Structures are given as C-alpha cells and as structure tokens.
Amino acid sequence: MKPAGKRILLAEDDRFLRRACEASLRQRGFTVLTAVDGEEALRLARAEAPDLILLDLLMPKIAGIEVLRVLKAEEETRAIPVLVLSNSSRENDVQEVKHLGSVGYLVKANLSLQELGDRVAQLLES
Amino acid sequence: MKEQNLILVVDDDREFASMLREFLEREGHAVIVAGSGQEALRALRQTPISVVLLDLLLPDIGGVELMSEAQRLDSRPEVVIITGNATLDSAIKAVKAGAGGYIVKPVDLTRLGELIDSLLERRLLIRENARLSSEARERLKETETLLAISSTISSTLDLQEALRSACRELAHLIGADTASVYLHKGGTDSLVPFAAYGIPKEHLRTHATTPLPSKEQGFYLPLWKERRPIHSDDVPHDPRFSHEFFRRFQHQSGLLLPLILDGEVAGVFYLVWWKVPRQFTEAELTLMESVCRQVSLFLRNARLYEQRERDRRRLEMLNEVSRRLAQVHDTDGILTLIVNEATRLLGAEAAGLRLLQGDDLVVRARTQSAMVLMSRERLKVGESLSGLVVATGEPVVAEDLVDDTRYAPEHKRAALEHGFHAFLGVPLRAHGRTIGALNIYTKSRRRFMPDDISLASAFADQASLAIDKGRLLREAEGGRQVLERIYRVGISMRTSWEQADRLQAFIQGAHEAVGFERVYVLLVTPDGSSFELVRTIGEEGIAPSSLPLSPAAGAFYQAFQTRRPVAVLRDEDLGEILSLDPAYREHPYFRSKRFVVAPLVAGERVLGVASADNKQSRKPIPPASVELFSLLCQQLATAWDEARLYSEVETQRTRLAQIFDSTSDGIVLVSRDGLIAAANLRAGELLTLDLAEAVGRDFAGVLSGLDDATASRDSLVTSLRSLLEDPDRGGQGDLELAAVRRVLRWVARPSKDASGTTVGLTITFQDVTEEREISKMKSDFVSFVTHQLRTPLAGIRWFVELAAQGTDISQETRSYIEDARESAERLITLVNDLLDISRLESGKLTIVPQETQLGEVTRSVLDELGLVLREKGHRLSVTGAEEIPRMLVDPQLLRQVILNLVSNAIKYTLPGGEIAIRMSQEDRLVRWAIQDSGIGIPPEAQRRLFEKFYRAEDALTLETDGTGLGLYLVRLIVERFEGRVWCESEKGKGATFTFTLPR
C-alpha cells in the first residue's frame, strides 16, 4: 500500500523538531498535520481523524500523557495508533505510555529521520 | 645429619645378603637381614623400616605378596626389587605393586647406593610435607578459636557465660576432655570453681563444690610465684598433683594455666585428659598463654564493672541505713540495727560491738550468730582482738583465725568450732578517742579489702554517733526537743546526694537547732596545703577565703590535728588553745571571744573543721551546745563523704550520659512493650518533641501525635509495631517532617542487656535533609539534561540529515555535513552516557530483565559496527557464541556493555588489526572476552581504567574523542548484574577485556 494520502498528526512544541520532522515525512509522501501543544493535538485528532499520531510528551497546555489518555478514552479516537516521541527516557513514562496503549516509544535524540520514516511507514502498512 | 634409617635385606642367599649388609653399613645405614618371607614379615611388623631390598624369589612367600603386605603398614617402607632372573613381566608386576626400584643381579653397588639415598630423601620430603600441612591446619584452627574466644568475651559482660565458652573453646583447641576455670576468691588463697565444660554428670556435683587446692600443693610455687603453665602426663604418679582433689577425678593428664590480672594470679584454667598421656610443645603452651591473656583482660573489665555496681549499691544501702538510724531514738535499737546491717552489707555472718567502760571492753550489741563468738562479757584493753583494736586505735584484720595467736583462746576455740575463720575489727571513735570496737566475722577465710574496711568504719562512725546521741539524751535535761531537731538535721542532710545541699542542711541545722548565730565550714584543699572557707551563715563582712594548714591557723589547726573539738567558753580556756597567727588574729572575721571549732572526721580522714559562735550578740555558749555541735559535725563528715563517693560513681554515669547526649544522631531506646525508656536531647530536637516529658510513654502514640500527618510517619508507626514483635529483625526508613522541612533517616536495632537478651529497640535518627535535597537536585539535573540538551541535539541531527539529502551539494560541503552529523552523534552519545551513569549511580535505573542470548546481542552489535570495522580493515573472529545459555538480564544494558567494549577495541587498534571475541561458560558464570592487537595498556593504567573520567595517556595520542565514561559505564552495568569486568594487557601487545556474569 502506498503511503501517499496517509495523514499523520505531528504534535510537537519545539518548532525546529516540528519543522525537520514535517519536512522529512512530506518527502516520503505523507500528509502532515501539525499541532504545537496538547490542546491543539486533541482538537485536530478529533476533527481530522488522522491515520497516525506522533505525540511529544512535554508540551504546553495539556501534557502528552494526558492527551494520550483522552485519545484512548474516547470512542472516535481510540483506534488511531499513537507513537510517542520524547526525549525523556524515564522508565515511569515508558511504562505508563505502553500501559495507556501507544504503539511505541522513541527517544528523539537517538533516532534518525530515516529510522523514524521507516517506522511510520511500517505502522501505517500493518 | 643423616637420619638413622633401617634397611631390611630379604634374600635367601646368605652370602649375597651379608655382602649387601656390609656395603650398606659402610654407607652409614642400619641394616637387618631376613632369610625368608616369614622372617621379613615379622621384622616389618616389629620395627618401622624405611627401605626393603627384596629378592622376588623366596622359598616361602611370593615377593609381590610380601611387597603389598609391606605397603599396608603404617611405616610404608620403600621397596627395591633385587632379582637374578629379570623378565619384563616381573618388572612390570613389581612396579605395579609399588616398587620404588628394580635392580638386576649382579648388583651395581654404586647405583644401589644412589637409589637408596634418593628414596630416603623422598621419604623425608613426604614426611616434612605432611608435617607442614598438618601444622598449617592446626594454625588455622588456632586462629579461629582465638577469634571465637575474643568475640564471645567482648560481646558479653556475663562472666559465667563468657568463661564457660572460653573453657569450651580451649578444650576444643587443645583436644582436652574437660576444661574448667577457677577464680581467686577475693581475700583468700583459694581458687573456687566458676565455670566448666565437658564435666561428666557423675562428677558435676563434686566439681561445683570443690575448690582447687593451692598452698599444700607442689604446683603452688610455679603457679602462684612463677605464673607458668603446669602440666603432667601422669597425674596419678606426679608428686606435684598429690592433693586429694586430683584423686577424686581419676585422670591421666592435666594442664594448669594461670590467669594473671594486675600482676596477681586471678584464676586458673584446669584442662583434663582422662586417658591420654598428653605432652605439650612450647608452641602449644605459648598459644594457651595468649588465650589466658585475652581472658584476663576480659576479667579485668568484668571486675571493674562489678566493682562499680557494688559500690553504688553499697552507698545507696548505707545511705538508707543512715536515714533509718536518724529516725530511731533508742540507742540499743540503733546499735543492734548497725551490727545487723554491717553483717549484711559486708557479706559476713556475724558482727558485734564492744564499748569501753572504765578499763573494760563490754559487749554492747551483737548479732544472734555472734553470741558464741563474743561469749566473754568483759575484756581488758589490749586483750584479744577487740582489745587490740581499742588499744591501737587501728583496724585489725585476721585472714584465718586458725593461724592467729592474738585471739583469746576460748574465743578462738568457739570461733573455729562454729566454723568462723576471718575477722575484721574497726575502732569506734568519739571526740578523738577510741571508745570501742566493731567486730565482723566471716565463715570463709577472707582477706578484707580496703573498701570493706572503710565500709565497716562507716558503720563504726554511725555507732559512735548513736552512742553519743544516747548519752546526750540521758544527760541533757529537757534536751529531748533539741535532739529531735538534731535528728531532723541528720535526716535533712541525707535527702539529697549533693554535697552542697548536705553542707547547707548542716549549717542551717547548727544555726537553728543548736542556736549559734554564726556557723562556717573550712575544708582542707585537695592538695592538703590549706583550709578553704566554703560555706557560712549569719555573717556580714568579708572573710579571708583561706587559711594555711599549719599551726598558724590556731584553733582550727588544733581541732584538725587532735581530731577533737576545741572550745573557748571562758577566758581561762584561752590558755588551752593554740593562738591564731597575728596576721589573721586582727582580721575582723576572726575577732570572736567565745567560739567552738570541731573537726569533720570521716573514717581515717579529717575533711576540715566547722566553727560556730555568737559573735554579734556575744551571748555565752552553753557547754551542751559544744557537744551538740561536734555531734552535728560528725554527721556532716559522714554524710559529706558518702556524697563524695556517690558523686564519683555518678560522674561515670554522667559521662556515659554525656556521650549519649552529644552524638549528632538522635537516639531513642524503646522497651519491648513500646514505651520510651530513654532518649537523648538530639532525638528531641530532631523529632520536635519534648522527650523529657515523653519518657515512659508509648513511642508510637507520641509519634502519632506529631503535627505532620505524613505517610512516612504512619509507615514508621506501622514498622514499629511489627519490630516490637520481632526486635531482632531490625529495620530502617525515612521519616519526613513536612512542617519543619526535615527528613530523618531512622535505623532500628535490637538492644540487649548484659546477658544478651533482647530488651527492646534502639532507634537512631539521623538528619538527612541535606542529602535528600542534593539527591533530588541531582535527579532534577538529570531530567534537565535529558530534555533540555537532547531536544536541540535532535534538531541538529535531523537538520543535518535533511541537508545531506540535498542533491546539488559539492563533494566538499557533503563532507562538512557528514562531519557535522558525526559530531552531533558523538555529543548525543555523551549525553546518553552521562544520563545512564547518573541513573545507575543513584540506583534509579530500573532493570528490565529478559531472556537474552549473549551471542545474539554480540552479533547485533557487530552488525551495527560492521561499517567501521570494514573501514579499519580489522580481522574479526567470534567463538563460543553457541555454548552460552540464555540468561535473564536487561538486554539494553548488556548491549551497551558489549557496544562500548567492541567500539574501544576497534578504536584503539591500528588499521588491519586482529580482534577476537570469545564466549564461554563456566560452573556458575558466563565469560565474555575481547582481545585486540592494539596499542596495549600500561599496567598502572589497567587498574584505573574503569574509573570515572579516566583516560590512559597513550589513548590520547591515538584518539582524542573518548570521554573517559565508556568503561566506567561498563563497570557500573556489569556490577549492577553482580558480575565483574577487568582488563589484561601487555604494552604494545594488545589488550583483553573480559567480563563475567553470574548465571
């Protein structure tokens, strides 16, 4: 299945990371929606029903973990796969995120865009 | 020196045998010859033989059979086969049966000589080795025993228990059947049984009641004078062990070991071997002596402790007796009380009092038991022992009345008849004169110690006071009221243990009860050079603070010197007294025409003097007041001295209490039922409690009353409940006091009494607020690093990656971008390492163990590093990966270890090198090693390689991008898995890094 046309919601408050990530995913042919805080992320997830959400944890307004909790609690967003991208590698976060039902937890600094793109493609194919 | 060895020649050829004999004897050996197998066997069984020269063909027994017979003997002789018809088969048989050599006839004597010498030498070596190894085993056992002894005796103050275990260890150490310890009973020469180990049941009773004889015994001299161990391997026939004591226990060997304490024999161990004749090497005796030294040290501590406790108890009892005496008015009642209490406190069996009546000493009071001892109602001064006491005014001691010639014969007969042996008599003094004697008798032989004598003297002083009071009561018309008041002064002097309080009570009493306007006390200074004015009442104006302790002090000195009161009641009396030095006479304070000065006498010592007068009103002093005053002075002196002794004992206790209070930790002692038994000041500060008020209350209840309702407090309360059920478990935790922003670390341990029984909990509180804050700051820093550093780093990494995808970039720019990427990644690795280290150090890193195969992890690391490996052109080999079983570890952390070690090997090996990874499993662990052909590591660096931030100097010349964190991280992780990591290297020859993990 071709990735083109798949819509990804990227929730990331750091504008540099957002820009780099968005550019890389576009190059691969995905449609990228961006959110700069938790509130916007929730709004877009509900309104746009993206195919995948890339979610930062430390974000203004509503923390990523809270966003994830709400997404998984609501009927219409529950099915959307959420991949958490964070720079914290605290075990508690990792455990909680998994427990809440995210499909993965990646540490941004340890990840190349290439690897991220591969993972996204793989998630969207399955 | 050639050791004498016996060689047995077995050959039926007589001529050949004697030829061998001649040769061997020339060589300096002792030789016996046997002409047949039977004869040879007999010889072998009779004497230990070193070498057998054996002909295989004997008329009666086969040579091989004889040989195996010989090998079964304890002496295990070396056997050399000498044979006339050698076959390969017989040679093989002989060697199989254990022959040490094989020689063919005709014999080459030189070769035979050499062979025998080498065999003998081998025997010598084997014997020597066996001796050394058994000595080493012995030494180990000795050390263990010494340790066991010193640990038992330092962990308890229970004398009996400690000595019993010392007996047990001694017996085990030297292999004795029984061991017992006898202690020197104070005041006698007898050694009484105290503790024992291994005494058979039928002897227990006899053992427990039989003291070890000493004086009559031959071993008396060496044991008591030379203080040497004494032993015998034939006790029944040893003249030194002839006492009946040794006959009661039929035993073969005995060893007596003296326990020396302060240069005196304090006791003795006696070790017994029932059947074995036992001899001792110098080394064994030295060892025994060192054990005895240990035990002696312990004895000293236990004695000091006991002494202190006994002093305290005695003083408290004495004080109690004094208080009771002050309340009884009838003199006979008091004196009876005194003899009874003196008997009890001194641990004696009888006591009595004789008083001077004219020239006679008359029995005035005695215990029931002393009736038979003091049968003669009247004695002359100087007659018998009491008479001697009164005549000399000194205490008289008789250790055993059997040997005493001073004792009146009929008294002596009666005493011995009733089993009394020791005597102590102390004088009763009043107004500087000896007025009688207090006698103490014990049934055991006893050498009375100085503290016994001073205690008896204290009773004698009480008795004189009582007698004096009684006399005054009779003499003083209507003096009853005054006496009542005096009694009250006596009681009030004993309501406090403070010397100052007692002094004040005295001065108040003399002022009010006797009616003097002015009273003052001069005490002798500790150096004995002068009087010091310590307390005064009723005087305005300044007094000189001291007077010399010499005739210059006039009447004060006179009262001190004569131990009698000095009074000037009329002008005529002035002629009788020593006058004050003019330098003081003119002083307004001493310008008094009528006065009384009385000495303060406690036992043998004069503490000072007290003086009283009516200086202001110049009222005359009635003669009765002089007596009353000196009576009060006597009371003060005894009360003062008791208080001094008590305060000395108290000082020791206070010192302990100060140590208890001056630690920076809070300490709370909780009894088994949860009540606060004691707490130091610091505990109160830390817990924000008034602990003085809290002592005796339920600790959990007190804690629950704290304002801070934190979870940590509830957890302490809960822990406390379960700890009290099982105090030996101990426990620890943190207690947060939010209101004062304080964190206390508490540790609970069982508290034990002298016998080792758990009596409660000792809980220490340590203020760890700062440590906890620092640790929190540290973890804050870690999250700062993770987020604030990693985010921009990820940005750099990603933009560089995007930039590299550009198509119209020059080759040069592309290389810049590649370098930028590498730099960013290096920085990310550094941040990651720092983060891991910080979390491993703080223990915050949670391990997620999974079934992991070491080979697979290694393979995946190598795949990742494949590119670099190829670039450097290293040859790589991996062996043993399949052998390693799966194990439960955290694969991420293990991967980190392997990655770091492999990266290092690649980095520090010049291009085209060899790298070999070997994995293996051993008994309990798996081993992973990587060997490179790199630059190697100097020895001094090998040790420090795994320290934080350490980098070998050579490493810098080859690569400069290392952080010094990689190997430290490796160590932290491996140690977290309870494994070990190390490095072996020779400079220039590469290095091998190995880690092991438990399976």
pLDDT under 50 segments of chain A (min length 5)? none
Counting DSSP H or I runs of 4 or more residues, the number of helices of chain A is 5
Shape type of chain B: flat
- Name the beta content range of chain B: 15-25%
Number of helices of chain B: 31
The assigned structural class of chain B equals alpha+beta
Alpha-carbon distance between the termini of chain A?
10 Å
Task: Give the strand order, joined by hyphens, for the main sheet of chain B.
Answer: 13-12-11-16-15-14
Taking all Cα atoms into account, the compactness measure Rg of chain A is: 13 Å
Helix content of chain B: 40-55%
Please summarize the sheet with the most strands of chain B. 6 strands, antiparallel
Task: Tell me roughly what share of residues is in helical segments of chain A.
Answer: 40-55%
Task: Give the H and E element order of chain A.
Answer: EHEHEHEHEH
Count all strands of chain B and give the number. 34
Distance between the termini of chain B: 57 Å
Class inferred from helices and paired strands of chain A: alpha/beta
Give the largest chain-chain interface (CB within 8 Å): A-B, 22 and 22 residues
- What's the assembly state of these chains? heterodimer
